Amino acid sequence: MDALLAVLADEPLSDEARADAAFMAAHRSAQADVAVLREQLGIIGDALAEPPKAAAAERPAPVRAARPGRTRRPRVLRLAVGAFAVAAVATVLSGMAWLLTQTGTGSDLKSGASDSGAKAGGAYGAESGLLDCARLVVEGDVTAVQRVPGTELRSVTVRVTRYYKPAEGKAEITVRTDEAIDPAPRAGTHVLIGILSHSSAVADLWVTDRTELAAQRAEFLQELTTPTPTPTAADTCG
Amino acid sequence: MLRIKARRGQGADHGGDDPLDAAQERRVRAVLALGGVPQADLLDGVQQVRLRLLERAAKGEEAPRDVSAWAAVVASNLAMDWHRAKRRQDRLGERLASLRQGEHPSGEDTSLLSVAVAQGLDELPDAQRQILVLRFYADLPVRGIADQLGIPEGTVKSRLHAAVRAMRARLHEDEVV
User: Fold this and answer.
1) What's the domain count of chain B?
2) Which of A2, A8, A131, A236 to mutate to test the interface with B (most CBs of B within 10 A)?
3) Residues A123 and A17 placed together within one structural domain of the fold
4) A133 in Cβ contact with A155 (< 8 Å)
5) Based on the domain organization, do A101 and A176 belong to the same domain?
6) Which chain A residue has the Cα nearest residue B19?
7) A126 partner at 20 to 30 Å CA-CA among A158, A165, B96, B149?
8) In this complex, which of A47, A92, A232 lies closest to B96 when CB atoms are compared?
9) Is the dihedral angle over the CA atoms A47, A53, A57, A61 positive or is it negative?
10) CA distance B107 to chain A (A)
11) B31-63 confidence digits (pLDDT tens)
């Protein structure tokens, strides 16, 4: 019997093993080393788990972008998902509404670029509300990209890793993006995609930057874990 | 119009609906960090664990019997995925060495030992590192690890044995034990 394996498996020792001095010495040595490893992993893990003091007050701020217009150009139009609300505690995740936030001017922002000037509370202004606008919002990995002949669009296939809206769906989906979207879709890219319009298959939301993705997840999570009153606003999706 | 609630600050008490308590969150952060997830990405990793717990609830699945153990396994898998995605993996040895500069209360010997263990972790294959962290940081039993990962107990023991043997060899070579 291997002394180290006996320690790791926490197996009781046979009389024969106990009578073997060399084995027992190896067993004690293995026990001591395992104890050191256990202690050190605790020390290291706890040390690394401490958030840096300078970053303790920071939260990643989502980038607020213009609501997309109807024209294909100008360039990337990206919506920030401002809030994610649960209709009732008893039906968590069974009904979701999206807050869509506008910065108002229709100016375009590149997706993927962080906006260090965006403030966490800035988008939650008096104009904000919960709107059940999105037709599709998923996270996934791009597996294929093709130009759509005769258009200014790309066809992007995504292997979905998480559905936000609807709650579930196919393992792989194909959406269309404006060919000017930035960053350009590439196989292997992890992306958050959203389609607002029920009459269009072109993505309005395209987030690849990890910090922004993390910010969006944090917002979804906050809404999921913070009970909110049932929205009464009329549907303003357009 | 629905008034959006103010964003909770980091470190604030978790509300009743938060699927992870403060101690569990800390443990998840540690498992992620031990798995090589960079400091800047730890919060996102924690959020992903939370979201998965909520997804389970939404699908009508029972809550894990041991949320802490379940969360540790999910975090360890996230750390593996991080590496597979070829994202930059934090070198624990370097990060720990920079944390310990001039501040270690237990003396230089302990600090050298910690750095040596951290460096040993960095050198382990991902699968062995995962098992080592789950067994000796998260304190999951071998059977529990096997059940959670969906692999045979023998595989867990084999990886654990290989990991500890490599770590022992490294520590004895470095003469820190």
Assistant:
1) 1
2) A8
3) no
4) no
5) yes
6) A225
7) A165
8) A47
9) negative
10) 14
11) 999 999 988 889 999 999 999 998 888 888 888
Q: Is A88 on the interface with B (CB under 8 A)?
A: no
Q: Indicate the SS3 state at residue A192.
A: strand
Contact indicator for A156, A173 with CB cutoff of 8 Å: no
The pLDDT tens digits of the residues spanning B91-149 come to 787 777 777 665 545 555 557 889 899 999 999 999 999 999 999 999 999 999 999 99
- In this complex, which of B58, B135, B161 lies closest to A5 when CB atoms are compared? B161
User: Which of A36, A37, A101 best tests the B interface by mutation, with the highest count of B CBs <10 A?
Assistant: A37
Minimum distance, in Å, between the CA of residue A189 and any CA atom of chain B: 10
Tell me if A229 and B18 make a contact (CB, 8 A cut-off). Answer: no
Beta-strand ranges (E) seen in chain A are: 81-86, 96-100, 130-131, 136-148, 153-165, 172-178, 190-195, 205-207
- Please list the ranges in chain A whose pLDDT falls under 50: 55-131, 232-236, 238
Judge if A101 and A211 occupy the same domain.
yes
> What is the domain extent for residue B123?
22-173
Residue contact B17–A226, C-beta within 8 A: yes
C-beta of residue B99 within 8 angstroms of C-beta of residue B170: no
Chains A & B: contacts with CB separation below 8 Å? 167
Handedness of CA A156, A162, A163, A164 (dihedral sign): negative
Which residue in the set A47, A59, A221 is minimally distant from B50, CB to CB? A221
A69-78 pLDDT, tens digit per residue, is 444 444 333 4
- Residue at A69 is within a domain: no
Total domains present in chain A: 2
Residue B67 sits in a domain whose CATH number is 1.10.10.10
In a domain, B40, yes or no: yes
- Cβ–Cβ gap B51/A217 under 8 Å: yes
Q: Does A234 reach chain B within 8 Å, measured CB to CB?
A: no
Tell me the ipTM for this assembly. 0.81
DSSP letter, residue A183: S
